[in-house]
Write a structure and sequence with these properties.
Blueprint (H helix, E strand, L loop, with lengths): L1 H7 L21 H6 L28 E4 L12 E5 L2 E4 L16 H9 L3 H13 L10 H33 L2 E6 L2 E6 L8 E5 L7 E7 L5 E6 H4 L1 E8 L2 H6 L3 H5 L4 E4 L11 E5 L2 E5 L4 E2 L4 E3 L3 E8 L5 H4 L10 H34 L15 H15 L8 H17 L14 E2 L13 E4 L6 E12 L2 E3 L33 H9 L3 H12 L4 E5 L2 E5 L3 H12 L2 E6 L3 E6 L2 E11 L7 E7 L5 E7 L1 H5 L9 H13 L2 E11 L1 H15 L5 H12 L4 E12 L3 H10 L3 E5 L15 H19 L21 E5 H7 L19 H30 L3 E5 L3 H15 L3 E5 L5 H6 L2 E5 L6 H4 L3 E3 L4 H39 L12 H11 L2 H9 L5 H6 L5 H4 L6 H26 L13 H23 L5 H21 L2 H6 L9 H5 L3 H28 L3 H7 L1 H16 L19 H7 L10 H17 L1
Parallel strand pairs: 17-29, 17-32, 29-31, 30-31, 32-33, 33-34
Antiparallel strand pairs: 1-10, 2-3, 4-5, 4-6, 6-15, 7-13, 7-15, 8-9, 8-14, 10-11, 11-12, 16-34, 18-19, 18-28, 20-21, 22-23, 23-24, 24-25, 25-26, 26-27, 27-28
């Protein structure tokens, strides 16, 4: 009932959300939201070694207990869980990991079980069983067994190769070694033998084998540097730091061997960035957090050795908890193909039932009265008809093609390799090729309607550069000399006076340097001192050079800027930080670091100066900083104006501030801080509350502005995709000004439109309006381009998704009477109907806009927007991003693309496709996606056609054999038709065919639209293929039948026996279907031609072999068509019949294709027709560009154009680059000039 209460109080229509605030943190799980309440600290338990064994866990959430150097402790009965009946195992996992699925014993049964869970395989297994019943089968068992074994074998081999690779990987990892304390000494042990509670030693460049608590290291204050590329792809180093007590006492081997600490912590979970626990040792408790934990998969760097205590092992480690199953994605064509297979199955059942009824009637009218047909069985006609029903199910089973699914997988695998091998999507600068991480979605790349893109690192480079700043209300960063005069052209600032400058910062405001050196405004120096001291960057000295390791590019850019301006961060320990201030080294005591998180949006540091003063320095988002400023801040408005200017220039901003703290005030606050640090429950919330008490009455210093440049080729890519009718939505966590738009959009206007439509629909349909037929009313009058810019807070308001934390203190009464329960249920239904209608209206509104930009949205909101478009527009979506905050969106979309960028590899690891630059997206979609879609559609249409043409000959034959389920072909031909005689050409077409070249595909993006509209494969196309197959089967049967009636051969013998008839039909069929695929092929290569004529030659070669007398002698019951091929095909009459049959099948197709291309040509046909002229135009255009002079190739220094916003860029398709126009524009303007030049 709490859900109902919450849902009723979720939306307040009078509330006005803050546009600049991210509405809530995705780090909070639903359980946490449920458990929010008053944070009451339990009394600290006195811990001693003797009482540890009997002590109950002292808090609810920390139920995981670890005892150092005591394996027997973890084997106690109350730590054992029942696994199966009476079999028990410890809840503490071993450190051996198992990612493989099979072993030598289980491979065959388990793999077969998994394969027969597929309906098609199970269907053919049932057919095989039916064929073993002689009463109903007229077809040899091997006709189904051979194709089924081939399908099962190919799939099993693929699974086996994959699993062997997993076995090797597991073995390699489990057999890695490290040093573990055993019998009081460090001894080498394999990873798989490590257990919870072991103390281990790791050395430089070692992988961390389990989740361990850092006890000590070779570095001062037991710092330990780790690389987390295995976890999140981040290559920049992060540091961990042990407790002071363990750093002091646990450095030697003997002390580590006698260490008997006891840990109570959270249960194993998948949250990489959080850890809550407490170490009890020496009768004292010490708080543990994520900064003291080394996670499995990390690599020790720049640290000679370190010691740790294993807390989670094997499957309990956080990296293994995160390796859960990814949601299985299937393409639109997959679903359509399955429905068509079901349709074929229904047709098969109806045909079999009709033919069975026909047989029963024939038996009653003819069979019972024909003595020469008596088979010794006295069965009734109805029973014979029933048996024949199953007989026809077997004979016509090839209507449901067994090899279809395997062929589709082979084609997709090949297409994936083509993407991997595409050198035009290879980024040489970082040696990063494109990678198809899945083989099941290629053709869906040709059907995309909506692209949802992150901004930072996806559209931009995520390489941050310090560009401007505002200090004490004054903006710095323009082109100015030391006298504060502006110049268009001025030399770069010379930082040679600063020995710590790295020489990489390009800055042009000489006046700022003059202010720093003169010291006239102390706020200027304090500004850069704050940048040098308030951060979590780590420093490493190599050959006298300072190397910074920052957790984010923004922070690294700010610390590097302070270094170049004379305030260099030199070193840090657990309690101190050393800064060079204009050449003078000073060391400050660090009293507290109030770290950044997604809720706080700021970080602070409290230091004691050498003079003894205590100061707090803070940097963070302007929205949270301005709420905490002292009311007497004279430069508040000037700084806000500067922030607006920076945001309009698409620069990333942070506000800087400080305050001085009295000794008494700090002492009181520090007590609360220490208490919150060891809080039993809700430690993070308790710390945030304490942080709030000190972070107030701040003095504003100014703001920084960092540039994140646009990636190369982004405007051109957006223009091309827009011309392909693909809509691009930008979903970003940045503020509205930074989200690529200067033009303000009236959000309240859009909001009122949503309310107005809600009221209209409510008046029409009442409470249950959603059950009434929808009335589509456009939000806007036709014409004009509109952009929708919306923030996360407004998004929650509009979609009724605003979260409210539930308090345990507030107890609302539950419904006591039936009337109250009914009213509450109705209220919930009304709210659900309102919410669903509101969501649909938002999607309709957004889709009427040319561009949509969602700012300040959380990862969960990104996924929600994608899901809404999927749900209400039934459109194919693609999400592209480069960071961990994009993973949810990438997994939700039909196709997820990861950018191998600066923010790590988490997005890549969760994606379906990955590459290094956004500009490669146009080639992925317009070339590979379109080709894959066209190839797959051609393949499926042809596959259904050839199987209907093959199978329905049995149907026509049944009218002449008493509906007796007699086959029209030889058994071996039925067996090999789909395997050898018609498989290779269609596979090669599915792999190699292309209607136009890749260059023309990019030049004419409009070609992409056929995939969006499902024009090449749908139910209409399917029934056309079915009809084509039916007509072909009729021609294949009736022309030879007519030719064979009352016929005499050259030798005076009648060739019209059943076996010769079967050979004639089979030969005509193989030639027809192979020539048909030749007509369907647009891109001819030697391989295609060889496969077509090779398949025909292979058919005749195998047929003559299996019709030979020699093989009949060896297997007389299996090969019964002895001499048929040689006898029949030596008759010219038979060859003329085959040629006539093939011609009648193919000539109408040729005529229809010719008329279609002449009278109703598609865009692709037009381009193919003029491809030589288009190629000449392209070569001419390249020559023209070689001789262009005086055109600058420099793009605007900002992320997007100053004059127009990002929304206008999407809708208009104009490029910011002046040097090179979009290719379509060149073609449109240049063709006439080229013709005039040619005429002259």
């Amino acid at each position: 009932m709490s859900t109902e209460r919450d849902s009723e109080t979720t939306f307040d229509e009078d509330s006005q959300p803050n546009d600049e605030v991210v509405p809530y943190s995705d780090d909070e799980t639903e359980d946490e939201l449920d458990d929010q309440g008053s944070t009451v600290e339990p009394e600290q338990n006195r811990v001693n070694r003797e009482a540890e064994e009997n002590r109950e866990p002292f808090r609810k959430e920390c139920t995981w207990q670890v005892k150092a150097n005591d394996r027997k402790y973890h084997e106690q009965p109350h730590f054992m869980n029942t696994k199966f009946f009476c079999i028990k195992e410890s809840k503490y996992a071993t450190n051996a990991i198992k990612t493989y699925k099979y072993n030598a014993i289980t491979f065959i049964p388990m793999n077969l079980f998994e394969q027969f869970k597929r309906a098609a395989n199970l269907y053919f297994l049932i057919l095989l069983i039916l064929q073993a019943i002689p009463q109903i089968s007229t077809l040899a068992w091997y006709t189904t067994l051979v194709p089924l074994l081939l399908v099962l074998g190919v799939t099993a081999i693929k699974d086996l190769v994959d699993d062997v690779a997993r076995h090797k990987m597991d073995k390699e990892i489990n057999n890695r070694t490290c040093e573990v304390i055993k019998d009081g000494r460090f001894k080498v042990a394999k990873w798989k033998d490590i257990q919870v509670g072991d103390v281990i030693r790791l050395k430089k460049n070692d992988f961390v084998p389990a989740d361990i608590l850092l006890l000590s290291s070779s570095e001062p204050n037991s710092l330990c540097y780790v690389e987390t590329a295995e976890l999140d792809g981040e290559t920049n180093l992060k540091f961990k730091m042990s407790l002071e007590i363990t750093d002091q006492y646990l450095q030697r081997e003997d002390t580590l061997a006698t260490f008997d600490g006891f840990i109570e912590c959270e249960e194993p979970n998948n949250r990489l960035d959080k850890f809550t626990g407490t170490l009890f040792w020496r009768n004292t408790s010490f708080p543990l957090d994520a900064d003291k934990i080394l996670l499995r998969g990390c690599v020790i760097r720049n640290t000679d050795f370190c010691h740790g205590l294993v807390i989670f092992a094997g499957a309990d480690t956080k990296i293994m908890k995160n390796s859960g199953k990814t949601r299985f994605k299937r393409t639109k064509i997959d679903y359509l193909m399955n429905y068509m297979v079901y349709t074929i199955f229904v047709v098969l059942m109806l045909l079999s039932a009709g033919l069975a009824i026909g047989h029963a009637y024939w038996e009653a009218q003819v069979g019972n009265y024909s003595w020469y047909l008596y088979d010794g069985e006295d069965d009734t006609p109805s029973y014979r008809g029933f048996l024949n029903f199953w007989g026809y199910i077997i004979v016509l089973n090839t209507m449901v093609p067994i090899s279809l699914y395997v062929s589709v997988e082979v084609i997709r695998l090949g297409q994936s390799h083509f993407i991997n091998w595409d050198l035009q999507m290879y980024y040489a600068e970082k040696d990063t090729p494109a990678k198809a991480r899945t083989t099941t979605l290629n053709e869906q790349l040709g059907q995309i309607h909506y692209i949802f893109s992150d901004k930072t690192g996806t559209l931009t480079q995520n390489i941050m550069t310090f560009k401007k700043c505002c200090i004490n209300g004054q903006i710095y960063g323009d082109h100015r000399d030391a006298s504060q005069h502006n110049h268009n052209k001025i030399e770069q600032v010379d930082f040679s006076w600063n020995t710590y400058a790295d020489g990489k910062l390009a800055f042009y405001d000489h006046y700022l340097i003059e202010q720093i050196q003169s010291g006239k405004e102390p706020e200027v120096r304090q500004f850069f001192f704050l940048l040098a001291v308030c951060h979590t960057v780590m420093v490493d000295r190599t050959d006298g050079q300072l190397n910074y390791q920052a957790a984010s590019p923004d922070e690294g850019a700010l610390v590097n800027a302070a270094r170049n301006f004379g305030f260099a961060f030199l070193a840090r320990t657990q309690n101190t930080i050393t800064i060079s201030e204009l050449g003078t080294e000073r060391t400050y005591n660090v009293l507290a670091i109030l770290d950044f998180n997604s809720d706080r949006k700021r970080m602070s540091i409290i230091v004691r100066t050498p003079e003894g003063n205590i100061k707090l320095y803070c940097k963070g988002a302007d929205t949270v900083i301005y709420e905490r400023l002292h009311r007497m801040n004279p430069t508040k408005q000037e700084t806000q104006d500067a922030l607006d200017i920076f945001a309009n220039e698409t620069l990333r901003t942070l506000c800087l501030c400080y305050k001085e703290i009295e000794e008494k005030e700090f002492a009181e606050w520090n007590k609360k801080f220490m208490a919150a640090s060891v809080a039993s429950t809700n430690r993070d919330e308790a710390l945030d509350k304490v942080y709030e008490e000190i972070e107030k009455d701040l003095i504003l210093l100014g703001a920084t502005a960092i540039e994140d440049k646009l990636q190369d080729g982004v405007p051109e890519t957006i223009s091309k995709l827009a011309k392909a009718d693909i809509k691009i939505w930008v979903l970003t966590g940045d503020k509205k000004g930074n989200s690529l738009c200067r033009e303000e959009v009236n959000l309240s206007y859009h909001y009122s439109l949503l309310h107005a439509r809600m009221e209209n629909q409510r008046n029409r349909g009442g409470v249950y309006a959603k059950f009434a037929p929808p009335v589509q009313e456009p939000f806007f009058p036709p014409g004009g381009n509109r952009a929708l810019i919306i923030t996360g807070s407004w998004l929650n308001e509009i979609l009724l998704e605003k979260k409210t934390k539930r308090s345990k203190i507030l107890k609302l009464k539950f419904p006591r009477t039936e009337e109250e329960r009914r009213m509450r249920t109705q209220s919930k239904r009304r709210l659900e109907a309102k919410k669903e209608q509101r969501q649909k209206n938002f999607v309709d509104l957004a889709c009427e806009c040319s561009a949509v930009i969602c700012c300040r949205v959380t990862p969960k909101q990104k996924a929600m927007v994608v899901d809404l478009v999927k749900r209400y527009k039934k459109a194919i979506t693609l999400a592209i991003g480069d960071g961990a905050n994009d993973v949810n969106m990438i997994k939700t979309a039909h196709i997820g693309v990861g950018i191998s960028g600066q923010e790590g590899m988490q997005a890549v690891m969760s994606s379906d496709y990955s590459f290094a630059q956004f500009r490669y997206l146009q080639r992925l979609l317009l070339v590979h996606g379109r080709w894959s879609y066209i190839r797959m559609c051609k393949f499926l249409r042809y596959f259904f056609y050839k199987n209907f043409a093959f199978t329905l000959v049995h149907f026509w034959y049944s009218f002449f054999n008493g509906y007796s389920a007699q086959t029209a072909y030889e058994d071996w031909f039925i067996t090999l038709y789909n395997v050898l005689y018609s498989s290779l050409p269609v596979l090669l077409m599915g792999l190699l065919d292309q209607d136009v070249s890749d260059k023309l595909s990019l030049r004419f993006p409009g070609l992409y639209i056929v995939g969006q509209r499902d024009l090449l494969f749908n139910y209409k196309r399917f029934f056309v293929s079915l009809l084509h197959g039916v007509l072909t089967s009729m021609i294949l049967f009736f022309i030879p039948l007519g030719a064979y009636l009352q016929t005499v051969g050259q030798d005076g013998e009648a060739p019209s026996d059943y076996q010769s008839f079967a050979v004639t039909i089979a030969s005509a069929l193989v030639i027809t279907v192979n020539f048909q695929i030749g007509l369907d092929t647009s891109y001819w290569t030697f391989v295609n031609a060889f496969s077509i004529f090779g398949s025909i030659a292979l058919y005749f070669g195998i047929m003559f072999d299996i019709h030979s007398a020699g093989i009949h002698v060896l297997f007389p019951s299996t090969f019964q068509f002895t001499g048929t091929a040689s006898n029949a095909l030596r008759q010219p009459y038979i060859w003329l019949t085959i040629i006539l049959t093939v011609a009648v099948c193919l000539l109408p197709v040729v005529a229809i294709r010719f008329l279609s291309m002449t009278i109703w040509p598609s865009e692709s046909d037009k381009i193919q027709k003029h491809r030589k002229r288009l190629k000449a135009e392209e070569q001419w255009q390249r020559r023209q560009q070689v001789f262009r002079r005086g055109v600058s190739s420099r793009r605007s220094a900002y992320a997007f154009s100053h004059q127009r916003g990002y929304a206008d860029l999407i809708s208009s398709g104009r490029s910011i680059r002046k040097k090179r126009s979009p290719l379509d524009a060149i073609v449109a303007d240049g063709t006439a000039e080229y013709r005039r030049t040619g005429d002259s």
